[in-house]
Amino acid sequence: MEKIPITRAGFARLKRELEVLRTVSIPQNIKDIEIARGHGDLSENAEYSAAKERQSYLHGKMQELENNLAMSNVIDLKSLTCEKAVFGSAVTIEDIHTGKRITYQLVGPLESDLERNRISVTSPIGRALIGKCDGDEISVNTPGGIREFEIVEITVQEEEI
User: Fold this and answer.
1) In this structure, which topology does domain 77-156 adopt according to CATH?
2) CA nearest neighbour of 69 among 133, 10, 155
3) What's the CA angle centered on 119, arms 118 and 125, to 5 degrees?
4) Mean pLDDT of 121-127
5) Going by CATH, does the domain composed of 4-75 fall within 3.30.420.40?
6) If I label 130, which of 25, 71, 81, 119 is the partner at 20 to 30 A Cα–Cα?
7) Where do the domains of the chain lie?
8) DSSP, res 84
9) Strands, E, within 10-158: which ranges?
10) 104 forms bridges with which residues in the sheet?
11) Rounded mean pLDDT of 58-84?
12) Does residue 135 sit in helix, strand or coil?
């Protein structure tokens, strides 16, 4: 089984999500099923069907979270340096053609979130950045064609738990 890199904060978020499922969502769903059962004929009971579907979803989600936690390899970001782009680094890149700058934090696939500028080390840009230094140029094959970037700055980002 291949381990998936994850930050300490990302691991804690997955554990919290699993705990909420176990202590809040699933018990509430059990109550919803009991209430729907009390409404009579189950074959024509839309509430009961919806609650059973929700039950299936919740148990599947719980299993997925348990698997993700089991496959996680927590990486401590405290020992990071700013010399090279590595897992956990915040890397500011500049599009060579447009001059537009953006900063991405390199994280594992379980934590990637484009809205928060967190990209996976397994993504095309993430793979191209790993091991590079300030001033290096990278070419990335994207759906829109090949894009070229220059690494402007590499920093260590504080973990938020």
Assistant:
1) Chitinase A; domain 3 (3.10.50)
2) 10
3) 140
4) 93
5) no
6) 71
7) 4-75, 77-156
8) S
9) 72-75, 89-95, 101-107, 118-120, 137-142, 145-156
10) 91
11) 89
12) coil
